[in-house]
Amino acid sequence: MTRLEPYYSPIDPILYPIFAFLFVVVGLAFLASFIVAQITNQKSQRNLYRELTMALVASITLGLGGFFVFLASGIYV
Amino acid sequence: MNKNILLFIIVLIGINAVCGQWLNQDVTRTIDLTTQISKSIIQIKAKNTGSDSSTYQFAINKSYKASLAVLDEQSKDLPVRFVETKQEFNIYEAKFNSVVKSGSTVSLKVALTLLQQMKPYPEHISQTETQLVTYKDNVYFSSPYQTETQKTTVKVPTGRMESFTDIEPTQSKSSQVIYGPYKDVKGLQQTEFTVHFENNSPFLMLNKLEKEYEVSMWGNLAVETNYYFEHRGAKLKGAFSRLDYQRNPSASASHVSEIKEIVPRDSADFYYRDQIGNISTSTYTYNTNSITLKIVPRFPLYGGWKNEFYTGYNLPIDKFLSRDLDTGRYVLNVSMGVNIEGIYVGDHEIRFVLPEGASDIEFKLPNQIQPVSHRFENRKTFLDTVGRPVLIISTHDTTYENLRYVQVSFNLSYFSIFHEALLVTGAVFAFCILVMILTRVDFSLSKVKSN
């Protein structure tokens, strides 16, 4: 006899619109700060590790935001 | 002398092969002709007269389009497979769960549906005429074995019966014809009877049905159904009068103006479209365990008319997808066809769009006698890299199978579930890197002298 257990989505679909909104807002803020820092910083002030960290944080938040926008709008990837 | 014994043995084997090793002691058939398909319930009491056996054979005329289900005493569905063609019969074999000892008896219940066995006669009727049909079938229970006693009851929808074949002993009551009891009928004997009666039930069939399930590991099961309907009743004579139809739609009894489909209770986000675009004439009502989706086509369907469209809805994944705790495989359990009363399907295709990265795909269909074929395709949709595997299962002539379930199982790594999220993140990160490179590259045409 096989033992079966219902499969649930990693995140409850009810939360998708909230997640989409939060991650997109926070993600855009991080991306904006990253781009501002990129453009205004002088060559002498550059720090590659700091920039990469900012880029990573921005891409994770905005990436998840975009992903949840897909799910919330009914495009179940 | 020796030769004679050998010959005797050969003859004995020959007789055994022809008669089989079962004896039908009593067979009761009830043929329900109230809808467009003939639904027979056959109760069989059979005795094993040969050696111990675990199989029992049935015969169906090879010109019939049939669908067969065999239930044992515990009402359990037995697997049935095609064996061979003998004379004008196809022989099918049901396999018991346990071996039946020689000399013991078994009771079987067979649900046999014959498709397209009822033919409209006259073939053409005007808009307001009632529909008359003829039904032909074997008056004896088609079996490769001998049958001791048998009786057949034919039920027709109304009391109006034009004629029926009289094969002694035959009785007719208001809406019933009873053939038999007949005694000691040999195996594979065929004597056809014809009943000519009024039947105004919709003769609506699906020439083709395409049902697609799209599995998302993020909580959704999208269902889309493509219907290719045809009204197989008596063809409409003359032109269609919209005025007559609007004045009294019930005057033409055999036409179809709406189709009711039962869908799961958790269905949401319905749509109903065809090639032109969205059709707004569909409603759904909630029942205790299901939803009735009422589809009103753009035009009423009369005999010989066709219509095609598609509908779709979403289902929550947790009711249909399970995980096997022992093997870690995912198992999808969904209905095989459409739950429309009295419908039957010509070409039946079921498509499963599985998540990207699904492997070792297997499927299990309910027991049925029609051949099944399958193939795989690849489909690329949103955020796909290598494409999703699509399993396409094709079969034909299905009726009650539509209400039953098909299982598809597959392996999927945990990483594949998050694959798409990582893809979007990666895209944003690539953009950031691009910005970093662009700010570092000097695009100025003339060198600015630094102070």
UniProtKB/TrEMBL annotation, chain A:
Record keywords: Membrane, Transmembrane, Transmembrane helix
Record membrane topology: Multi-pass membrane protein
Cellular compartment(s): Membrane
Sequence intervals crossing the membrane: 14-40, 52-76
One example of a Gene Ontology biological process annotation: protein N-linked glycosylation
GO cellular component, as recorded: oligosaccharyltransferase complex
Pfam families, per database record: Ost5
PANTHER family, per database record: TRANSMEMBRANE PROTEIN 258
Function: Subunit of the oligosaccharyl transferase (OST) complex that catalyzes the initial transfer of a defined glycan (Glc(3)Man(9)GlcNAc(2) in eukaryotes) from the lipid carrier dolichol-pyrophosphate to an asparagine residue within an Asn-X-Ser/Thr consensus motif in nascent polypeptide chains, the first step in protein N-glycosylation. N-glycosylation occurs cotranslationally and the complex associates with the Sec61 complex at the channel-forming translocon complex that mediates protein translocation across the endoplasmic reticulum (ER). All subunits are required for a maximal enzyme activity.
Family note: Belongs to the OST5 family.
Quaternary structure and partners: Component of the oligosaccharyltransferase (OST) complex.
Name recorded for this polypeptide: Dolichyl-diphosphooligosaccharide-protein glycosyltransferase subunit OST5
Organism: Tieghemostelium lacteum (Slime mold)
From TrEMBL, chain B:
Keyword Nucleus set for record: no
MF annotations from Gene Ontology: transferase activity
GO cellular component: oligosaccharyltransferase complex
InterPro entries in the cross-refs: Ribophorin_I (IPR007676)
Parts forming coiled coils: none
Topological type in the membrane: Single-pass type I membrane protein
Transmembrane segments: 417-439
Domain of life, source organism: Eukaryota
UniProtKB keywords: Endoplasmic reticulum, Membrane, Signal, Transferase, Transmembrane, Transmembrane helix
Signal peptide: 1-20
Pathway membership, UniProt: Protein modification; protein glycosylation
Compartments in which it is found: Endoplasmic reticulum membrane
Short name of any one Pfam family annotated for the protein: Ribophorin_I
Main location: endoplasmic reticulum
A Gene Ontology BP annotation from the UniProt entry: protein N-linked glycosylation via asparagine
Keyword Endoplasmic reticulum tagged: yes
Annotated family: Belongs to the OST1 family.
Annotated function: Subunit of the oligosaccharyl transferase (OST) complex that catalyzes the initial transfer of a defined glycan (Glc(3)Man(9)GlcNAc(2) in eukaryotes) from the lipid carrier dolichol-pyrophosphate to an asparagine residue within an Asn-X-Ser/Thr consensus motif in nascent polypeptide chains, the first step in protein N-glycosylation. N-glycosylation occurs cotranslationally and the complex associates with the Sec61 complex at the channel-forming translocon complex that mediates protein translocation across the endoplasmic reticulum (ER). All subunits are required for a maximal enzyme activity.
Subunit structure: Component of the oligosaccharyltransferase (OST) complex.
Record protein name field: Dolichyl-diphosphooligosaccharide--protein glycosyltransferase subunit 1
Species of origin: Tieghemostelium lacteum
